[in-house]
Amino acid sequence: MLNQVILVGRLVKNPEVKSLNDDKKVSHITLAVNRNYKNSETGKYDADFIYCTLWDNIAQATAAHCKKGSIIGVKGRLVTKSIELENNKKITYPDVVAERVTFISNGKSSDN
Question: What's the predicted TM-score (pTM) here?
């Protein structure tokens, strides 16, 4: 069986690293990944917003070298996470746990 995801997209906001109780570092980022076709109504490219979790050295390096708008590549595995809301409803969503991050561009450029 194979569980591998490769994404290239822009960071939606500046990455922040948090320290956990056991001295592990974690960063939760969101990648905006453009679709490869234009929306017929707007004439623009739509994007999917993909949640990713980065751990330890990958999290620290990404926070040190990237900012909102940076283009990065993420290779990782897909997991399913759940959150229980106050009204006892449960939300399940996909999350990519990064195994490798590649820094492609440090900010916005004029191309799509």
Answer: 0.84
